[in-house]
Write a structure and sequence with these properties.
The chain is mainly beta and 588 residues long. 4% of the residues lie in helices and 42% in strands. The chain has a 6-stranded antiparallel barrel. Strands 17-16-15-14-34 form a 5-stranded mixed sheet, with no helix packed on it. A 4-stranded antiparallel sheet has the order 13-37-36-35, with no helix packed on it.
Length: 588
């Protein structure tokens, strides 16, 4: 933890924030990092058009008035764009004093050996390596008087992290109106894949405003919102962290003000760490074709649940959270208000169900009550009436089944596959008569598969053969012709995988995610679309956050909705994430 005597110092080293009467939207104004002896490598990124006057300072002796000892006596500032030197300075110029004051920087003592550089910069990535034998404060100030031009969107520092006064202390200022979403990452273990040695084994990051600690994180996947963290990282182009690593991450929505972050090692440890700060841009008001976005989060994280859409609303049934204990929870999303609410719970706690909407009812079929591949499985069918938010029991399936898939053709629900021994089962339910009919077996037995229908043909995609998530998976695609009552083989999925999700949009079959990758998270980000006319697959932009274990999706007002799911293979890592995608109406 940052020593209490250093908190006022950290705050005072940040510039004074001035908020005008007509401030632009929230943005990053200034960045700073204080590092002990070593070779810190700070960097920052400007994004936008044109150029922007920027003020950079490497402060050593100028820290003395704050009571700090052990500072670097004569820092030298070098600014690089790639390998090209953009500017450099060893002793600051008094002529730059007024610009420093205008930017809100604290004054440097007259005649000090601090370094400063005032220069216009175009959009791009910059680094400012500092060779220091003592404590140095590197600062980056937006020295422009208007909001036009490039903007600060990212800062990072690779530096040694010590203990006590040797912890890493980045600072930043948010200006403008409203709130700015920021992603803060303190990375140690995940640096190993880049060849960095001597890394901080277990970093922690704490965010302060003044002396008030706003948030802290030790291990990033232990955060309340790991799915949102992954989505934010994908949006800003940050490299993915190793799953279940000890790296630390915070995702915060901050209003105008001055903030500091403290990076230290758990248990007083030390080592090299990378601190990153990203401004996460808001989504466009209208998501363009071919783009991914986010909608309101689920109220509870979940995976291995079923999803159905009816009348502009999405229904999420059961499943289980990280505890892997089945829940009765029913969550309903209203696309008109972008909000979720909880409704009347399921009659029985279930996971691995399938769901489908016919007429004015949503049907939840099969599933299991416990966790794991052995069930116990159920044959139950429950009908949910959205008008009264009540449940009724319908005729059971011909067999107990879990981990299958379902789709609707001509007002009837077709259910295919399931965990062994039900992997070949194929049956149809008629809600009008409350009767089931057994149909010709699915040619390839499998579970955790995708099932969707186009023009009275039912397409069964991917899946796995055995009960557990480490089972062998398949790329097989088989189609059932409802009119002829026969099966045929179609072009296989581009990649073998199970736990996929599928939905039809504009006459094309979209297949997302799935598990069985055997590396990293074990979850596929792949998004493929199938053209039933040409019997061909096309690869589309991948999911920002790969998920599996969500059976069913929604297609509302031109957007595909994918709610929840697991972010790692297995069933104990469900997320509240609600991802959306705008498909094209035609593909080549």
């Amino acid at each position: 933890m940052l020593p209490r005597r250093l908190l006022p110092l950290a705050a005072s080293l940040l510039p004074v924030l001035s908020v005008g009467a007509a401030e632009p939207p929230a943005r990053l104004l200034n960045l700073s990092v204080r590092s002990a002896a070593g070779t810190p490598i700070p960097g920052f990124v400007l994004a936008g058009e044109g150029t922007r006057p920027m003020l950079l300072r490497a402060v050593g002796p100028g820290l003395a008035p704050f009571g700090l000892t052990g500072f670097e006596p004569n820092p030298r500032l070098t600014l690089l764009s790639g390998s090209r030197t953009v500017g450099e300075n060893e002793d600051w110029r008094p002529a730059d004093g007024p610009a420093m004051a205008a930017a809100g920087a604290f004054p440097l003592p007259a005649g000090s050996r601090d370094a400063a550089l005032l220069t216009p910069l175009a959009a791009g990535a910059y680094t400012a390596p500092v060779n220091a034998t003592g404590i140095t404060l590197l600062e980056v100030y937006d020295a422009a008087s208007t909001a036009s031009g490039p903007a600060l969107v990212n800062a990072s520092t690779l530096a040694p992290v010590g203990t006590g006064a040797g912890v890493l202390i980045p600072g930043f200022v948010v200006g403008g109106t409203g709130k700015l979403r920021l992603l803060l990452r303190a990375i140690g273990p995940s640096l190993a894949s880049f060849g960095v040695t001597g890394t901080l084994a277990n970093p922690t990051v704490t965010l302060y405003r003044g002396q008030q600690a706003l948030a802290t994180n030790d291990d990033w996947m232990a955060a309340a919102n790991p799915g949102q963290v992954m989505a934010a990282a994908a949006r800003v182009g940050a490299f993915p962290l190793e799953m279940e690593s000890r790296d630390a991450v915070l995702l915060a929505d901050l209003e105008a003000g001055a903030y500091t972050a403290v990076v230290s090692g758990v248990g007083g440890t030390s080592g090299q760490a990378l601190f990153e700060l990203y401004a996460v841009p808001p989504q466009p008001a209208v998501l363009p074709v071919g783009a991914w976005g986010l909608k309101a989060d689920l109220l509870e994280p979940n995976s291995e649940m079923s999803v159905a859409e009816l009348g502009g609303r999405i229904y999420v049934f059961g499943g289980y959270p990280a505890s892997r204990v089945s829940v009765r929870t029913v969550q309903i999303y209203d696309s008109r208000t972008d909000t979720w609410r909880v409704s009347t719970p399921l009659p029985v706690a279930l996971n691995h169900t399938v769901a489908a909407a016919v007429g004015n009812r949503v049907y939840v079929i099969g599933g299991q009550t416990g966790a794991g591949g052995a069930g116990p499985f159920v044959d139950t069918v429950y009908a949910f009436d959205p008008a009264t938010e009540t449940w009724s029991t319908r005729a059971p399936m011909p067999t107990q089944r879990s981990g299958g898939g379902a789709t609707v053709v001509d007002g009837k629900i077709y259910v295919a596959g399931g965990r062994p021994p039900r992997g070949n089962d194929f049956a149809v339910y008629d809600p009008a008569t409350d009767r089931w009919q057994t149909l010709p077996d699915l040619p390839t037995q499998r579970n955790h598969l995708g099932v969707a229908a186009i023009d009275r043909r039912i397409y069964v995609t991917g899946g796995r053969f055995a009960a557990g998530f480490e089972s062998e998976t398949t790329d097989i695609v088989e189609a059932f012709d409802v009119a002829a009552g026969t099966w045929s083989r179609r072009a296989p999925l581009p990649k073998t995988r199970g736990g996929v999700n599928s939905i039809v949009a504009h006459g094309y079959l979209h297949v997302f995610g799935g598990e069985g990758m055997r590396t990293g998270s074990g979850v596929f980000a792949d998004h493929d679309v199938y053209d039933p006319v040409t019997d061909k697959w096309i690869s589309l932009p991948p999911m920002p956050v790969p998920v599996h274990g969500a059976t069913g999706a929604g297609f509302i007002d031109g957007l595909i909705h994918l709610a929840g799911g697991g972010i790692m293979d297995g069933g104990d890592n469900g997320t509240t994430l609600h991802q959306v995608y705008r498909p094209a109406t035609r593909y080549p």
